[in-house]
Specification:
Layout (H helix, E strand, L loop, with lengths): L1 H10 L2 H19 L7 H5 L6 E12 L4 H16 L4 E8 L6 E8 L2 H9 L1 H10 L3 E13 L3
Antiparallel strand pairs: 1-3, 1-4, 2-3
Helix pairs in contact: 4-6
Amino acid sequence: MIIFVSQILKSLNMKTLSRVTILFLLIIFASCVKKESVPAESAVQPATDSVLKKMITAKVYLKPEYVADFIEAARAMIDSSNAEPGCESYMLYQDPYDNTKLIFVETWKDQAAIDTHFAMPYFIAFGPKIQDWLAQPTEIKILDVIAAQ
């Protein structure tokens, strides 16, 4: 390895050799500089004062023969959810090109409101009621809504 490097250095002119040496020294210096570490929890979670509210998306994939039944059952879920004190918005959207694909988009005041929602009897009953209507599992994401910079 050392022989290989020395052969490369011999083939370089003085100007190029100076540049390579400076670059090499900068790389060594940069690797030695102590970097400020970011605590793992702050890298994963936003600062609590920047979280405004919570959002949930739930993508639902239905068997074609159950689309109308699902929408009817979802209307009761939507009305009940929107009546909850911590609910800011609870809507259902349907893909106009594939009516078997729907998505719930929900906005909640905070995690406590979501926890209350998940404990509601109508919410608990909804999952088993629609289970046989699903073509594939529902994809649920809970997101923090943060302040814009």
